[in-house]
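Sanity check

After download, print the first record. It should look like this:
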Amino acid sequence: MSRRLLRRVLIEANRLRRLQRGPLREGWSVEVEASTRLLHHYARRAHWVPLALQRRAIGAAAPRRRPRGVQLTRVDVNGIPGEWITPEGADPRRALLYLHGGGYAVGSIASHRHYVARIARSACMRALLIDYRLAPEHPFPAAVEDARVAWRWLLGQGVDPRRAAIAGESAGGGLTMATLLETRDAGEPLPGAAAVLSPWVDLTLSGASIDANDRYDFIPRRVLSLYAARYAQGTDRAHPLLSPVHASLHGLPPLLIQAGEVETLVDDARRLHARAREAGVDARLSVYPDMIHAFMIMSFPIAREAIAELAAHLRTHTDAGE
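Expected structure tokens:
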């Protein structure tokens, strides 16, 4: 069965279900509800599947076609596999380091290439994706170490930090915050902008929305607990580089935080925003109505709005005073 036909079947099956039981959420279209229910079904059973098989399945599901309107260039980022995504007409002086999500255990350049290409095209800037080391084979702080190497490498290519940004979704959002904190504390140059999308910034799982939004979102507490254990292993999960919502956030660059209203991690985003504002950071929070975790990387129509907002933030704060 083709992917398009399977999607059509799922949508029609969900349409029948809604006729019988009503919509799961009034603000959801049939298409959004069908996609959400499929993710919900898979994610709550994925922990039974060996991690190696999950990684292969995610890799197999990644689009094989090249993203339109961009040039792809593989690079060695001081031993870390990387890929430049360069849109036609991109400003060569500006660059985005993007850190993918996946619970610190899955995800790759291949799985996120098309999404990051959309950001790069919209922001008209180059983007660097890296395959940082994954848990449990490489637990904390391996991912932070790799992200720091990538940021230093980027600056070593002659990129002005004021014209650069760091961003990531889900665990990549937590990794973005950890990278900013480590860079700040080392007294090294920070980027002109940062963005975290559906960020996972509290591995202690203390947010009330984890349970309050359980029926809508696809990432339940037990799955979060599993991924947190894989990454943290023997480290206290309240460590500020594991749970940046508990860190001192002073001195960070302008920060955009996006989240979905009904995602289990929306409280992570809200608390991060509050902590950042308290620390004097220029932080903005956008909570998109009726949206689930990491909706911006999906094919939902509202994802285009989120990408446009992200691109505007990146352009505005990497202009280096122009």
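If your output differs, re-run the checksum step. Summary of this record's structure: The radius of gyration is 19 Å.
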